[in-house]
Design brief:
By secondary structure, this protein is mainly alpha-helical. Helix content is about 70%, strand content about 0%. It has a domain at about 15-60.
Length: about 90
């Protein structure tokens, strides 16, 4: 008994990529390709989440004094203003 239901997917320009993989013989059908793509996406998202968890843990363990958000945004505003000014000058 099938545990999943058929779906319709519109790939647009990515259809050529699917067709190429089918013609290569590496996959028997579009479902195999899509399952493989979803597994790769799951691995990518898991790796990103792991990386972010590591960064957050390192940040929380950092003994340095916190910087107030207002200071951070003020500095970012200055950096942005400088970049905009340079872009206008170079245009």
């Amino acid at each position: 008994m099938r545990t999943s239901k058929p779906i319709t997917v519109t790939l647009g320009p990515m259809q050529a990529s699917l067709e190429k993989r089918l013609h290569s013989g590496d996959y028997d059908n579009a479902s195999e390709i899509l399952r493989s793509a979803l597994r790769a996406l799951d691995r990518e998202e898991a790796a990103i989440e792991d990386h972010l968890r590591t960064k957050v843990a390192a940040s929380l363990a950092d003994p340095r004094k916190s910087v107030p958000a207002s200071d951070v945004f003020r500095r970012l505003g200055l950096v942005h203003a400088k970049a905009v000014k340079a872009a206008k000058r170079d245009a």
